[in-house]
Design brief:
The complex is a heterodimer. By secondary structure, chain A is mostly helical. In chain A, about 70% of the residues lie in helices and about 0% in strands. Chain A is built from nine helices and no strands. In chain A, helix 7 crosses helix 9. Chain A is globular, with a radius of gyration of 18 Å. The relative contact order of chain A is 0.11. Chain B is of the alpha+beta class. Chain B has eleven helices and 16 strands. In chain B, the strands form six sheets. Chain B has a six-stranded mixed beta sheet with strand order 13-8-1-2-3-14, with helices on both faces. Chain B has a two-stranded antiparallel sheet with strand order 4-7. In chain B, strands 5-6 form a two-stranded antiparallel ribbon. In chain B, helix 4 packs across helix 8, helix 4 runs antiparallel to helix 10 and helix 7 packs antiparallel against helix 8. Classes of the chains: A mainly alpha, B alpha+beta. At the A-B interface, helix 2, helix 3, helix 6, helix 7 and helix 9 of A face helix 1 and helix 2 of B.
Amino acid sequence: MTAPPTAQDSDASLIEGSLADPESFAALFDRYSAMLYRYVSRRLGPEAAEDVVGETFLVAFSKRHRYDLAQRDARPWLFGIATKLVARHHRTEATRYRALRRSPVDGPVEGPADRVAADVTASATRPALAEALSGLARRDRDVLLLVAWGDLAYEEVARALGIPVGTVRSRLNRARRKVRAALGDTDPTREEA
Amino acid sequence: MDDLDLIRDLGRGLEHPPPASLGRQRNRLLDATRRRRRGPGRWTLLGVVAAVTAAAILVPAVIFHGRDAAPVATRTTAPAGGTPLNVLFLGSDERNDGYPPRSDTMMLVHVPADRQRVHAVSIPRDSLVRIPACTDRGGKAYPARVGMINSVYPVGGVRCVIKTVESLTSVRIDRVVVIDFAGFRGMVDALGGVPITLPRSVADQKSGLKLSAGKHRLNGTQALAYVRARHGLGDGSDLSRIKRQQQFIESLARVARARMTGNPVQFAKFLTVMATSVETIPRMSLGELRALAGSFGKGGSIELDTVPVRPSRRDPNRLEWDPPKAERMFATFRTP
């Protein structure tokens, strides 16, 4: 969603600077709040997302003394905090997926034939996907969505959740297996997967 | 499309673009970064009895030391240890320009019977409040009205201020301490200045304050400009100024305590200046003051707050108290 910092200061040096100059921590907000908002809005919808993003940075600010400055990229850290906060809204998230499961699916958009075909596939599978997501164990869903929606690498997910990379892999596999099973009846492309 | 692609696609459909209101969350973060940490560590660092108690105890103690040469009524034990005490501080604006003095700084301080947790609550001067009918010292009567709280002192004097604050808070006020600007300036100078740290440089034309970012030791004139300034510091509101005043008092108390033990000559000078620039009502005898000061012993902490307020419905440029929250804040003032 957002490229990791390159030319600018690394997140680590920014966080280090904020130890002496607290207000400079706002630069981290400017860098990543939009990215986090997009991610959380997918899981919880716009209202809760705004609050969770705000909370995430408040928590991050209060824990900045404990940030591992060897980690230049702070995204996994922020995603980890946001994930914990999302868990507090598990009812909102469940309601969101349930609504999706019931609501009529949007028609395909205009566009090149293959794109339309993909949209048709996607739209057709939505209710089943939503059903599958709401049926996943929370820890499996966290891993799956950090990978699919947060664009984090396995190592980054491991850092975000404070678990070994092997655990990330096994949780992801389990989650994907369940999703594929749920898609079984509706997904014509299943065999290719 | 594999299952991950399908999930990604679902996610794109669920996503919302960041709204402009996300800026509120940024402000929330900034507020948090500006808030000073209030852990117990910080207050124990302040040590024994800090800012307000220094004022509450030392100030009157000195006055009487200076004015009442002979200690009278030494056997009185009225406000000594074991008795809770509520003190109202008024920072008065003696401008010598023909206008009556206003009370721009108001702070209600509760000293509990055990002397352990002193609680000081600042009252925003922009508070729009119900002012009860009252009679000043000269016998002139003023009808009840709704007005700004800092408008009470110039017309009705200390008597009417006491009556107003008592009716607003249901807290009985035992003592009023009035400090004027000149006295404040003199107190800071007598201490040899008070250190503050500025997050960014300040140039406030209105108060004549011009300082770079970083650490400074303010002299009396600068300190007065610093605690009075509304422009160029914080968000320009009375509330941010109150916060600044509280921080300054804290720093001043720290210096005063350091002088008391480390530089008795300078401290004596500080006390003399205080004696001439502060007025307590009703006056306390030296014996009472000694007993009061002694009752603090070595322990204790202080907590600084501000009356919970919200923008007034009558006038958005004024503040009105949040009654349930204010009620809760002052509840401790009514118990020993």
